[in-house]
Amino acid sequence: MKKEYFYFIIAGSVLSLFLLTHCGGQQQAKQPAPTKLPEVKPIELTYSIFFPATHSQYKLAESWAKEVEARTNGKVKIVMYPGGSLTKADQCYEGVINGVSDLGMSCFAYTRGRFPLLEVLDLPLGYPSGKVATLVAMDMIKKYQPEELKDVQVLYVHAHGPGILASKKPVRSLDDLKGLKVRATGLCTKIVERLGAQPVGMSQPETYEALQKGVVDATFCPMETLQGWKQGEVIQVVTDSRCIGYTTSMFVVMNKAKWAQLPKDIKDTILAVSEEWVEKHAQAWDNDDEKAKEYILGMGKEIVSLTPEEQERWKNAVQPVIQDYASVNDNLPRTEILADTQKRIQELSQ
After folding, report:
1. Cβ distance 86 to 101 under 8 Å?
2. 163-167 sheet: strands from edge to edge
């Protein structure tokens, strides 16, 4: 009897252990698996830039992109395409409109006639620096909100320092310009014509080879171009023509439909970063002009200073370019924006 009782106790224990283990396993199996939140992919934006990846202005654009990514906590990812690898310099603006790229940086002047009001920014008004040129360009766009920019979302603009003449032989007077083929773009082609030379239209990426092969004899450009685009290697002389200092204004714009899809907090962040980067680009232009001047002198190139009398000749020669801009009758506020631009240059130059 005792043995049977012992076996009964053992059997009961085994059965209890089995039921406990089996039922517990069933209960665990019935528990739902923890919910895995779906991975949120960042908003990816493509950015086409005509500057090469080695240029300081490209590097600033890249730092702008990284700052946007950081301040949105990774919600935005910007893929950079330098050197016109996605859209060429003169196709960049239309490329943004058509969605080839979401963002784009290039020059207004590369699509001549597309921005009639904003041509005022590139007139030979005697810009003393890249900082002045950049701040003036931003001020005018904010004030006049040009209709010609309605197809994109403008983030910011910037502009290079005073254009100078870089040539393969010395140019010390207007007489030396006669017959020279000079690379220019946008309104600068008219400046070249008024100075008595022959303009050849082309963008910066094409200029090095054109100078090297003798397609052109000279180029109008900011000083920094001689180092940033390595054009100092293929010229011999720089003529300091700041007396008629023009600039080339550049846009940073975004596809309008893509902009409309962004959440408000991301839009606010992009605009805030863009506002900060205006000053950075402005200062970079001036820093690069100074570095390029040292670079040119270090290569043994000559910098020609125009005499006061010659400066007056150059200024008088280009006056018709300014007058022609203001005299066009197309219902645009040309005289107003010209006066405001000249006034702002004076204010910022003091």
Report:
1. yes
2. 198-201, 181-184, 218-222, 163-167, 237-240, 302-305
pLDDT at 32: 59
Structure tokens at 57: 């202005």
Task: Write the pLDDT tens digit of every residue in 271-280.
Answer: 999 999 999 9
Half-sphere exposure (Cβ direction) of 103: Cα atoms closer than 13 Å: 23
Tokens 């870089």 locate to: 166
C-beta neighbour count of 95 within 10 angstroms? 20
241 has pLDDT over 70: yes
Q: 254: which residues sit within 8 A by CB, 6+ positions away?
A: 45, 96, 102, 103, 104, 152, 153, 155
Over 70: is that where the pLDDT of 30 sits?
A: no
Segments in the chain forming alpha helices (H): 2-30, 56-71, 92-97, 130-144, 188-194, 204-213, 225-228, 256-261, 264-298, 308-327, 334-349
Q: Are 301 and 167 in contact (CB under 8 A)?
A: no
